[in-house]
Amino acid sequence: MNKKYSIKDIAKLSGVSVATVSRVINDNGRFSEETRKKVQKVIRDTDYHTNFSAKNLRMNKSFSVGILVPDISNYFFANVVQKIEKILFKQGYSTIICNTARDEKKELAYLKMLESKGIDGLIVISGAKAFDISKLKTPQKIPFVCIDREPKDKQNTVFISSDHYQGAVEATNSLFEAGCKFPIIASHSRTSSSSSYRLRGFKDALAKNNITYNKSKNHIVLDSDNITKKLNQFLELEPQIDGIFAINDSIAINVLSALLKIGKSVPKDIKIIGFDNDPQDIHSYPTLSSIKQDTDKIAQVTVDNLINLINHTGITGESITIPVSLIQRESSK
Amino acid sequence: MNKKYSIKDIAKLSGVSVATVSRVINDNGRFSEETRKKVQKVIRDTDYHTNFSAKNLRMNKSFSVGILVPDISNYFFANVVQKIEKILFKQGYSTIICNTARDEKKELAYLKMLESKGIDGLIVISGAKAFDISKLKTPQKIPFVCIDREPKDKQNTVFISSDHYQGAVEATNSLFEAGCKFPIIASHSRTSSSSSYRLRGFKDALAKNNITYNKSKNHIVLDSDNITKKLNQFLELEPQIDGIFAINDSIAINVLSALLKIGKSVPKDIKIIGFDNDPQDIHSYPTLSSIKQDTDKIAQVTVDNLINLINHTGITGESITIPVSLIQRESSK
DNA sequence: TTGTAGGCGTTATCAA
DNA sequence: TTGATAACGCCTACAA
């Protein structure tokens, strides 16, 4: 049972001082090629690796970042979080995921825990209100970036977001192009940064097609209960409806099965398109058209910017918009 | 810009020694009620919190655990991981999630990274082969528990698993009870600890109903490509088939849409039941019957056992089986 | 009941 | 180019 090696052991074994070993390890400072080789051989032979607790203590870093996410069971969120985590891991960072369940109190509690864990940075995904880190009265504020959620103080952070507006425009246009005359939007009652952009895109696409958006005629609000009933009532009042842009795929799927129950045929009677390109879209019947967000790019851009903020390099105050793409399937043919 | 407080500051502010402060914080050792109050007040006033890097360094712990998971986009895995993470977070542990993508090389690479990060414990979820931690030649071996994956050396670990066998028996029986005469099982070609138990359950349920399992007549293997074509061929050869037990919901959903394309009616012509109770089950058409795993319990038991292993309390060498439950929906009525 | 002091593994400053 | 050493914040024998 050989104990773990420390930098001191490596120093002794290779006949140099700890300072030199540290310099070789971090490729920092000056040393001869000869000593580098000597030291590196010993490191390999002993299978030494650095103790991060010690390093972090000394450097006053934790190499961990927190992620605040409203609902990890949502496909888009889960997907982005997973990709962020992978990229961060490669760079030596650990990730602490906090599912706030859209609860402000929970969010604050998590924030305090994260703060006390000494995270180096924070990623905030979506959520109802603008994100206000000043709720924490930490001496030195934690660098953070926001995805799909406007920060209250844009000065020292970066705001990253898909082009929700453009996605909504394209989705709505695709309904018109498929022959729809009276499309509506289906949304939940929650508002968020991304959903309001999507709504705006829908309205503008309507306007381009000479329809004036009317809240009671072009917009149905559906939360998870009573969807079939509400939809049925709405359709009886507005029987001319022939297209639905659902603000996300979860709602789209719900609408789809509600329509089947009501006895409507999709896409013959009514066409549907969603948003997010959930994997289940290809298993619905009919398969669901959608707008795909570029989660790879979102994750990469997010991490790049956060690391820059942590290292005090790069620019802040930016807003970065990531393009989306239209995925045509059966439901809007 | 007030700097961060350390235990030394708290000591000075409350007029006691650092040792006493430490004792109060950890409720460890003896001290008077008076000093406790004094110290705790100062801690509250200063909003002090402990520096974990220092604590971990001193105590030779990291308060972090790794999770090896084959595919985080799978609902069951994601669900369990999320719940484990939440429970661990409450206990002060960070979680490092590693998506191995069922790749042995990746798994080993991740293991080494985790080892070098100094994790206190490891959770291993599913995977093809028995888990062999001896691939790592760490001096002190890392405590670990396995979910749905047999450990190579059962002595020093705990094996946790749903009752896959019983679930498969109940699923198959429910098909018989719904009137099926010739049920088959649909599986992927991968084998895993859980899938072989499910297969065994299916076979035994068949036997109980006086059918001898025959690989070519009662078993169809479907991977993600060509599902509709393969299923169609199989059904032409075996037209008497009237029930399908899919080894998981992902396959079940695929089978369902394939059947609809072929022109079969579910559940009239063929009944289906899956396994895992994915959330999408209630959005398929018809809704999908399934076997539900108790992820809350799995997560809790897993964490409890791992923490015990880390603290050298509790028993090892155990296998723990968690009950499952049948969820009847339209597809097997 | 409380205090003193050493040491965990690193990095960085200062000398050599 | 290298080495000695202080310091990071904490816990814990040992002493008082």
Automatic annotation (TrEMBL), chains A, B:
Residues 5-59 form the HTH lacI-type domain. Keywords: DNA-binding, Repressor, Transcription, Transcription regulation. It comes from the Bacteria. The keyword Metal-binding does not apply. The keyword Mitochondrion does not apply. SMART domains: HTH_LACI. One of its GO terms (molecular function) is DNA-binding transcription factor activity. This is LacI family transcriptional regulator. It comes from Companilactobacillus heilongjiangensis.
